Amino acid sequence: MMNGAQYLLRFLERKGVDLVFGYPGGKVIPLYDVLAGSKLRHVLARHEQGAVHAAEGYAEASGKPGVCFATSGPGATNLVTGIADAHQDSVPLFLVTGQVGLGDLGRDAFQEADITGIATPVTKNTYLIQESRQMPDVLEEAWQVMTTGRPGPVLVDIPSDIFVGQSDFPEPGTRILTRKIPMKHRLMKNLPTIVDRINQAKRPLILAGGGVVISGVRNELLQLMEKMNIPAANTLKGKGACPETHPLSLGMAGMHGRAAANLAMKNCDLLLAVGARFSDRVTGNPKKFLPDAFVVHVDLDIAELGKNIPADIGVAGDARTFLNTLLNRPELKRNPETDAWIQQIQQWEAEFPDDGGGDYEGVKSQAVIREAARQAGPTAVVVTDVGQHQMFVAQHYPLDAPRDFITSGGLGTMGFGLPAAAGAAFGRPGENVLLFVGDGGFQMTVQELAVLREHDLPVKIFLMNNGVLGMVYQWQALFYKENYSQTVFGHNPDFVKLAEAYDIPAFRLDQPDQIAPVIRRALDQAGPALIDCRIDPRELVLPMVPAGGTLEDMMGRWRGETHISRISGE
Predict the structure, then answer these.
(1) Do 371 and 494 share a domain, yes or no?
(2) Which site in 173, 248, 316, 567 is 20 to 30 Å from 98, CA atoms measured?
(3) CB of 441 within 8 A of CB of 416?
(4) Cα–Cα nearest to 461, from 511, 496, 501, 488
(5) Is 478 found in the same domain as 383?
(6) pLDDT digits (tens, 9 = 90+) for 95-117
(7) Rounded to whole angstroms, how far apart are CA atoms 209 and 238?
(8) Do residues 299 and 211 lie in contact, with contact meaning Cβ atoms separated by under 8 Å?
(9) How many whole angstroms separate alpha carbon 388 and alpha carbon 365?
(10) Are 531 and 396 found together in one domain?
């Protein structure tokens, strides 16, 4: 005999879980009571949103599901932003929330909230356990739903009397459920056409998305690129899918993508989109996106096929199966005409180099990011919050491996960065974690500095402090006649003193000649450290495709010009 809380912990242990993030409260006291005697390590966040973002960072860095506990009512609702973030970015999370007793359900009891109803649109599934005998099957199904097919969050809501109720539970991990049936991927039917199109393509391009990172098929992608001489661009979540130092890697495409990557996308005659969902940040105006290219779209989630961009061939399957199947086809032959295509892309890279950051004096984000990359190397785990710095990092920090870049992609959640960096440090113990975060997002979850100090996590924080909400400020500068409505912070704290209040070493960086030595001092710290980088608010992240525009509408400083123009010269 054991109670429900004991069974839950035994279940998680049998699934290989060794770390849980959470925040206790009234309706999960029985769970925390038995947690103290379990094998599971618990990380006490300073806010439930911090706990769920930390679980995301852990999952993305380690490749294992993140587990998070919270109490009923506000504890559960504080998780919702992180749950939605994980749902958008296909992050596997196992969320357990406490609930009021069974007899109080639906009576507006103290700290009651219908979290299963609230979270249903942003999870793969939610469950409310109403009888102890449901526990084994519900927990097993929830785990399988989370990890089968496209990963994502699941939530199990457990009333307090289920936690304390005794039952003769079976041993966890003995059930094999088949409720969720995988769909046929339709690859073999379309394979001859796909091979023929690749062989004939003169201007082929691969778009690697987050699905390539999740599937762990970096080597297979590289083999296809090199065998067929096909360049690859990546989405934001696909950063690291192939080494960015490779000559066939074009870097990020889309709204703030590199010029050569966007021009290659616009001019390709064949696009192999693998594990990418064609978000608006990649396509711009979907009605004008690749009207003349043959599009092969491969995604594990069949709902993504044709949702945003019509594909000539849609394959509902995983990236590993698709790439390995292609590589094993003897009739796949390299087209020598792709050499001219590669030369054209190289010309674009020379003609439209990365933006220099403007003509003002002071510390520039690009310079900080590039020096951090030089000193920390390509193997550091890089985490960002959301905003201008996020796009600068995507553009200017080259990475060689998947799962080394962690960011909030689909939801764009400010406040994600600091707790996610803590989670990443737990997921990759002993490795340096570099966090790039703006002064706006940093203040949304700043309390999680306590977690860094408490656990002595080697997170180096690059606080890109420009005193404004940078990305919105940029839009106001470019499209709203410099009407900076509510985007300038009237007062910011002294971030160096704030970090020191948490007993975290901190450094101020406000002159270009300080960049290298200050970064060295921060990286030399064994535990956490913060650098307050004073950035000019006039700095713009370029290139930029205006909202509703097309890839040829890219704005930037081209051909050595100091003013901003479209790539077409208009």
Answers:
(1) yes
(2) 173
(3) yes
(4) 496
(5) yes
(6) 999 999 989 888 989 999 999 99
(7) 4
(8) yes
(9) 9
(10) yes
